[in-house]
Backbone:
């Protein structure tokens, strides 16, 4: 799977405006809706919020991966948002989150959905990449940083 | 059966009937038609022979395993016991001799159809060995494999041909007899070692891969050598001058074809696998792929390369695709049934009687054969980064000569170069090295490393993702769900034989899942650890959700009552009454 087919500059937002967890999720869903990736905005929002309610997807190092399953999408879709000053997201390390990767995958279709999530977040675990993403001034740069050849070994180690 | 009032009596009567027939037959001295004719043709006799082979091969294998020996040893010994030169050549009561063919001097010990079936089994064995090979490791160890293979071939040829000279069996190094003894000594029968390594799950260790790589090279060199030896022999027999150009031509064609085949396989393997996936059902994929392997094996045979090398190369080509596990799982039954036939037949080919007079020569040759492989291959292994233990494992793994040596010796016999007794000596060497190798190698297959130091070719460290759950059945439930989740991620998941574990594979990504007591374990390459954790996390969340839903609804207990209340509701009253009266 080519990650660039899923994550493109239309689905990246550099300066998120939201000031609460729910509003931020809604803002990212709107990014997907505006890019024409989802038809049923309401169902998508419900799926992500439902998953978030069960367990927060705020990880460590300022990364969060809100995601959900819904059959209103036909294939995996993803959006990435950045909020430099951070937002409390009930993360594992208690720190506010700055980089938000959202995915929506069809519930009844197979595909490397969790693998996509895992691969991108693994790339983001590299502090240098993370800083570059935060410093990026264009959406294309972010896409290029995160969709580099995944067969290459990660920069850490 | 229902008409018979007393089944016990009928059984006794039927038994008596059988014995009456037996008595009548033995009084008349009657035997089935095939037994009295002494000829082995006819489907009926073939079925009888197969029955004997299947029963003895599998009984022998089971017996050996019960005594903690590899099954191969039992299968070979069962073949020796029941072969045409031992029990198989004798008249069996009622059935006649199963393998009377060996009575004719110089004649084929076993009928062609048995030999064909045995070849088919060898092809299957080598195809699966190829599938089980980790190509990444194969490439990393092709260096040591090359050194070990070449050193083993040179040492074995020199000691084999030199032994013939020293014992006065041949006059010069170019004497066809010396050359045949040299060639017989070279070929390693990778199948026997591969089976042992596979049984002990050591096929993917550095030693295992080196042995396999070396043995492939060994076989190729042996067949090139054979082509050369046969060429020189024929030239000498016809009194003509050596035609080195013709011999070089044959050798170049054989090696060239293999390089072409292996290269094409490595380049196209995954693409072929993608096409095979279009066949849909795993059953179809498994057997269609075996058909493909047979096709390549057949073409290889035509090109002067042994069929088993073609089959091995096909397996090797497909081992890099995620289909490898699927094919192996589908062929497992056929493999388990047929491969013992090959080893049993290998044992059956030994003429025990002809060895009596040549036991001394046979022992000397066996010792030379052992020394050449353990010394030659072991030394090369020592120089390629293995320690003493690793070198010994490699050397002993290269010991068995088996089927390829038998093919070479058979050719020598057919060409009139080897007398039946010297043929017997060659076979004795092949069988003894085969018999000796597994018991010697088996105890050395411990967890201890056979490498001098951490080798750059070491398998990358694996990461363990483990969860301790409250109860065993929760582990089972979660494991099942994780397997399903992996399938949704388009992994091919196969249960592993023997224990409660699974192997999930997508191209090069391989995850091993298992449960031990209340613990769920997933072994992953480090770059897949995050994926495994996310996957299990989602399933844990779903599981918690599921439990909560059941509890929240509060309907489960109501359902339980409904279920049990309905047990007798639909039973017709009469039946209930009948049961009541009978109980009374």
Residues:
């Amino acid at each position: 799977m080519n990650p660039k087919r899923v994550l493109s500059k239309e689905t990246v937002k550099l300066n998120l405006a939201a000031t609460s967890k729910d509003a931020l999720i809604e803002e990212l869903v709107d990014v997907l809706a505006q890019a024409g990736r989802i038809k049923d905005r309401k169902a998508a929002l419900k799926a992500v919020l439902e998953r978030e309610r069960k367990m927060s997807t705020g990880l460590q190092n300022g990364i969060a991966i809100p995601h959900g399953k819904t059959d209103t999408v036909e294939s995996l879709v993803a959006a990435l948002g950045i909020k430099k000053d951070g937002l409390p997201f009930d993360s594992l390390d208690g720190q506010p989150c700055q980089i938000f990767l959202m995915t929506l995958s069809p519930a009844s279709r197979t595909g490397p959905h969790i693998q996509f999530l895992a691969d991108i977040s693994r790339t983001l675990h590299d502090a240098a990449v993370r800083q570059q993403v935060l410093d990026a001034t264009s959406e294309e740069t972010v896409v290029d940083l995160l969709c580099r050849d995944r067969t290459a070994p990660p920069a850490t180690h | 059966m229902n008409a018979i009032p007393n089944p016990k009596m009928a059984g006794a009567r039927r038994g008596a009937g059988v014995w009456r027939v037996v008595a009548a037959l033995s009084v008349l001295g009657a035997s089935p038609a095939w037994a009295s004719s002494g000829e082995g043709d006819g489907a009926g006799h073939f079925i009888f022979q197969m029955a004997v082979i299947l029963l003895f091969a599998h009984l022998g294998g089971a017996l050996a395993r019960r005594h903690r020996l590899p099954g191969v040893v039992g299968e070979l010994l069962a073949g020796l016991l029941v072969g045409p030169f031992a029990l198989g050549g004798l008249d069996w009561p009622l059935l006649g001799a199963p393998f009377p063919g060996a009575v004719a001097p110089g004649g084929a010990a076993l009928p062609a159809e048995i030999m064909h079936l045995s070849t088919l089994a060898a092809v299957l064995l080598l195809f699966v060995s190829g599938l089980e090979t980790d190509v990444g490791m194969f490439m990393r160890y092709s260096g040591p494999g090359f050194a070990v293979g070449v050193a083993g071939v040179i040492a074995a040829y020199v000691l084999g041909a030199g032994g013939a000279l020293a014992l006065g069996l041949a006059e010069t190094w170019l004497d066809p007899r010396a050359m045949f003894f040299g060639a017989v000594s070279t070929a390693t029968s990778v199948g026997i070692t591969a089976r042992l390594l596979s049984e002990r799950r050591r096929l993917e260790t550095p030693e295992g891969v080196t042995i396999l790589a070396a043995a492939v090279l060994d076989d190729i060199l042996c067949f090139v050598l054979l082509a050369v030896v046969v060429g020189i022999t024929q030239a000498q027999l016809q009194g003509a001058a050596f035609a080195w150009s013709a011999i070089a031509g044959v050798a170049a064609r054989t090696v060239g074809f293999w390089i072409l085949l292996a290269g094409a396989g490595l380049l196209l393997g995954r693409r072929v696998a993608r096409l095979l996936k279009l066949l849909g059902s795993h059953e179809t994929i498994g057997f269609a792929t075996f058909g493909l392997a047979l096709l390549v094996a057949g073409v290889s045979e035509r090109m002067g390369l042994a069929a088993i090398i073609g089959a091995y190369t096909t397996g090797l080509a497909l081992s890099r695709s995620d289909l490898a596990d699927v094919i192996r799982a589908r062929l497992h039954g056929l493999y388990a049934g047929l491969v013992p036939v090959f080893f049993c037949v290998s044992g059956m080919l030994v003429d025990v009687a002809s060895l009596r007079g040549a036991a001394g020569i046979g022992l000397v040759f066996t010792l030379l054969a052992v020394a050449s492989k353990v010394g030659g291959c072991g030394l090369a292994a020592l120089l390629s980064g293995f320690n003493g233990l690793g070198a010994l494992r490699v050397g002993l793994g290269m010991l068995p000569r088996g089927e390829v040596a038998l093919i070479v010796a058979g050719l020598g016999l057919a060409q009139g170069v080897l007398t039946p007794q010297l043929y017997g000596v060659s076979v004795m060497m092949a069988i003894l090295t085969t018999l000796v190798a597994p018991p010697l190698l088996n105890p050395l297959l411990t967890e201890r490393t056979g490498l001098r130091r951490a080798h750059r070719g070491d398998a990358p460290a694996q990461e363990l993702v483990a969860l301790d759950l409250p109860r065993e059945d929760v582990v089972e439930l979660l494991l099942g769900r994780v397997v399903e989740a992996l399938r949704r991620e388009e992994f091919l998941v196969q249960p592993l034989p023997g224990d409660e574990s699974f192997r999930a594979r997508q191209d090069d990504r391989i995850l091993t899942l298992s449960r031990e007591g209340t613990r769920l374990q997933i072994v992953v390459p480090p770059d897949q650890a995050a994926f495994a954790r996310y996957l299990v996390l989602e399933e844990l969340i779903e599981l918690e959700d599921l439990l909560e839903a059941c509890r929240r609804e509060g309907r489960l207990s109501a359902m339980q009552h409904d279920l049990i209340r309905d047990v007798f509701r639909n039973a017709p009253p009469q039946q209930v009454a009948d049961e009541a009266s009978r109980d009374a």
